[in-house]
Predict the 3D structure of the following.
Amino acid sequence: MNDIATQMQSLYSQYGELAGISIELHKELIAITVENQAATACVFLQGAQISHYSHSDQPAILWLSPCCDYRAGQPLRGGIPICWPWFGELDKNPAPVRQQINSDNTPAHGFVRNRDWQLADVSIINPALTRLCLKLDIAAGEEALWPFATQLQLNIEIGNQLKISLEITNRDSRSFHFSAALHSYFALSDITAIHIDGLDDKPFVDSLDHWQQKQQQGPITFTGEVDRIYQQLEDPITLIDPDQQTTITVQAEGSNSAVIWNPWCDKAKTLSQFTDDAYRQMVCIETANALDDCIELAPGNSHCLGANISIS
Ligand code: TA6
């Protein structure tokens, strides 16, 4: 039996009999789907990437490209990719993060979104709440792009809210620095109809204007590409969609920065797994540890980067 078939057989024998749990194969990628009385979700082992979350019988809250390739080694466009051990381009990161990596070939957003994580646990907490735990153990010297022994654990609670927590533990004898983001794509009626609250007066770095420091005035609305790293955050971020009559709230944990991104029409044409007009139906609100909010972790210590996503 090939590796994928063996993996699926093993997952099915461990978890396949649990209520609402299915093991699926989407082309080259294995996914776990969860259905309970509150919600439906889908999580791919590759990158521990959540691809779908919705309340039962309701439209998707997370946006997923309709033209995903589902190929090994390529993150899906949409859902919640995990960006670690750096956010964005490595060379735009603080020196303590950059200086640890000795490679000329450093992919945007790090490498863990391209790795197969292990499904460590599935727990049916109650008929309306299911908890998944996925792990990625990195041995010292195993990864050309990361020299330190590290354990990553993603805890996902699927219920009336979607709660995710990325726990990074330093298993090495040396301290290390990282930046990170939960790169959440949200589904919209139309980008021109929505606005984002919770960032008024907050400083941000505008990656589209020479990484200049600026300050937010009022709600964020969209009339072109937006790619900003907001800093010194404490309050939840809300996405108001009048046409869908919904408000999505993103409450961060272990994070004082967030990225707001919409590619708009020109950049949309350059993106993989993305149709030219897809920019109208999505926006990213990314709970992050980016720029000054990057993390130093001493041996044996852990840090949790989390996001609680709710809709009303
Ligand atoms: O988070 C915003 C961003 O850094 C954008 O600049 C854009 O590159 C986006 O991430 C998507 O990156 P990806 O590597 O997933 O295509």
Remarks:
- Residues 88, 108-109, 183, 227, 259, 261, 271, 284, 286 surround 6-O-phosphono-beta-D-tagatofuranose (CB under 6 Å).
